[in-house]
Specification:
The complex is a heterodimer.
Chain A lengths: L1 E7 L2 E7 L5 H6 L1 H7 L5 E5 L2 E2 L10 E7 L6
Parallel strand pairs in A: 1-5
Antiparallel strand pairs in A: 1-2, 3-4, 3-5
Chain B lengths: L1 E7 L5 E7 L7 H8 L3 E10 L3 E8 L3 E8 L2 E10 L2 E4 L8 E6 L6 E11 L2 E12 L5 E3 L23 H14 L10 H7 L2 E3 L5 E3 L12 E2 L3 H4 L5
Antiparallel strand pairs in B: 1-2, 3-4, 4-5, 5-9, 6-7, 6-8, 9-10, 10-11, 11-14, 12-13
Classes of the chains: A alpha+beta, B mainly beta.
């Protein structure tokens, strides 16, 4: 398992996720969503750099979630 | 200029310190560079009638930020009656548009964050953000259409240039008040109808009804956009 902490606004929450998890998995992680209250439209940053959703989450990561800009459909 | 100071340190040690001060002539270009990243927060910059006190962040950059309080939202939209309560139906093509004044519930602070850009001798506002703010503060997107997930407002206006920041800001506020709200970016009808509720009052007109929720936060979605929200001055 991989320990990861995600911050969204002033709140942060830590979870254990399986090895080989991708950043996209964090978007859909129900524990994180319940604790932090984000929806589908977010981007994930590590040290200010936006992470690709298919990139592997390194153990001990500190991830910042931000609301992504959407567009008119 | 030279000066001498004597220091008595704890433990009894006495120190003589000689200070030499010379004024250095700093080239303007260097001074400008040093000031480049300085941001000056100014509270109570001015009061706009019917809106309130404006706070601003000024810098040497071409972009300035104004935080303007929103005391009410004029919702010009079609409405329908649901269980004796008038609620907006932004996607209706048939209902007549009515302008309703919506007053925020107690404990909800609403702000407009204006990005004011200087281009040569003129000012324009390329982006404007609408947020409800809680006590912490965290920023929330109201369950309204015409607002992007990051809080940016889609006013459908033509960006115009003005001779002053105040003129540009007043134009945005006028547009915000007078625009028709439509169904673009409307993603939660139920939450809208639980927050924006009105009833007719005797003698004509409408009044805002209390929202159908214990906390307004449950009807909004948290918006985190640090690059933008760092420019808010509450």
């Amino acid at each position: 398992m991989v320990q990861v902490t995600v911050r969204y606004g002033l709140d942060q929450h830590s979870v254990s996720i399986p090895l080989e998890s991708r950043f996209g998995d964090l978007v859909h992680n129900s524990d994180l969503r319940a604790a932090l209250g984000y929806g589908d439209n977010i981007k994930l940053l590590v040290n200010g750099v936006e992470m690709p959703m298919d990139a592997k989450v390194p153990t001990g990561s500190y991830v910042t979630a931000e609301t992504a800009a959407n567009s008119k459909a | 200029m030279e000066s001498t100071e004597y220091l008595l340190r704890v433990g009894g040690e006495i120190i003589r310190r000689s200070i030499t001060e010379n004024e250095i002539i700093v080239p303007d270009a260097l001074l400008a560079k040093l000031q480049g990243n300085v941001v000056l927060p100014i509270r109570n910059l001015l009061v706009i009638q019917e809106w309130g006190t404006v706070n601003a962040l000024f810098s040497n950059e071409s972009v300035q930020w104004w935080t303007v309080p929103v005391r009410r939202i004029m919702l010009k939209a079609p409405y329908k009656l649901v269980e004796k309560v008038m609620v907006p139906i932004f996607d209706s093509k048939t209902e007549t548009r009515i302008e309703m004044r919506w007053d925020p519930p107690e404990g909800m602070r609403i702000i407009l964050l204006m990005m004011i850009q200087r281009v040569n001798a003129f000012y324009h506002i390329p982006k404007c953000y609408l947020y409800a703010v809680d006590q912490r503060p965290e920023y929330w997107r109201l369950p309204l259409p015409n607002v992007f997930d990051d809080g940016a407002i889609c006013e459908g206006r033509q960006i115009r240039k003005f001779g002053s920041m105040l003129e540009a800001a007043l134009n945005i506020l006028e547009t915000f008040d007078n625009s028709n709200w439509n169904a673009d970016l409307w993603n939660d009808v139920e939450k809208t109808h639980r927050m924006f509720r009105f009833e007719a009052i005797d003698g004509g007109g409408f009044k805002t009804l209390p929202m159908d929720a214990n906390s307004w936060i449950t009807l909004c979605s948290k918006t985190v956009n640090s690059a933008i929200q760092k420019n808010i001055l509450l």
